[in-house]
Fold this protein.
Amino acid sequence: MITCDVAIVGADPYGLSTAAHLKAANGLDIRVFGEPMGFWEKHMPKWMLLRSPLAGSHLSDPERSLTLEGYQANTGNAITSPLPLSRFIDYGRWFQSQVAPDTDHRKTECIDRNGTGFRLLVEGGEIWKARRVIIAAGIEPFAWRPEEFKHVPEELASHSCDHCDLTRFRDKKVAVIGAGQSALESAALLHEAGADVEVLVRAPFVRWLWRQKWFHTFKPVARMLYAPPDVGQAGLSHLVARPNLFRRLPRSVQDRWGKRAIRPAGAAWLHPRCEPIRITTGRAITSAVPHGGRLSLTLNDGTVRYVDHALLATGYRVDIARYPFLASPLLNTIQRVNGYPKLNDRFESSVPGLHFLGAPAAWSFGPLMRFVAGADFASRTLTRGVLGKTKSNTHHK
């Protein structure tokens, strides 16, 4: 059995940022498991552009030197806005090469308690023991399929995260379900790949993130209204960017404002690309039935669409029970609320030494945790908590 102080499960922005901060602490043996930027490469469409602004797309390191600008200076690869997915993936892997070059690319197959620590079974049968485990394993297991599609075969209906190349739908008739950035950009990419596309939206209208020139470009006003990550509406953006403050609000306020901050919407720069596409609003799907090799979609107005495929850009619903590597005895000891782990101010669950980052931390720290921009706060906060505890434990000994 191989041992380490901290095992980080996941090598996307949150896992890599946390590795950068913890590795800067002398004496801690940190191991990172997972394919670097794997979710972004395998579960997001090629040619995608990031909706987040550049200021909200940096990974985090203690010196703030491994930013997008640092990447550009060191590699010569230009950074443009909006940022292409391929460039962001390359940036993430460059970051990983700087902070965690020894990342173990294998999957973690099982995590369970082992005395005062944890036992990790990795792909190939190797066993590790860690005093502390940090789960930064992303959202892919949380992809949500509406009830009407639960029994539709994948060749007729799939989630948007099931595809990295949408050109496979060239010359096909595709219904895109959803109203957020994923739905709208997928529709644009499908249309540009030669598919016949219709977007079906349950809401009465599509919301676009128009940037008011005065609010966003006049810096004194912009700084007052919007925090750099630009998550949430004017004013609310500053609260979202301060998770320690957000988590102190009454639960009902957190829930209401949290939902408001992440309402489905498309970036303004995407709007011209969606103009040629048929977008039908105020329509919900009441049934989805295979029909002669195609899919029959019945809408709430009684009309029917016959399509070759339905692309479900229907988002993600966090439920850590869907992580396949959490052993049942361990999972059952984690206090949860609607699938989210309850975390303390160190991102630690009710199981001492077990931490969660990214979207699973959103119930405890607010909507910033759903975005790359939250990696800076999360990695710094967790590191302070872990080092403080480590030092106090050492002092006690």
In short: The first helix runs from residue 13 to 23. The CA atoms of residues 236 and 257 lie 8 Å apart. The longest strand covers residues 127-135. Residues 208-261 form one domain.
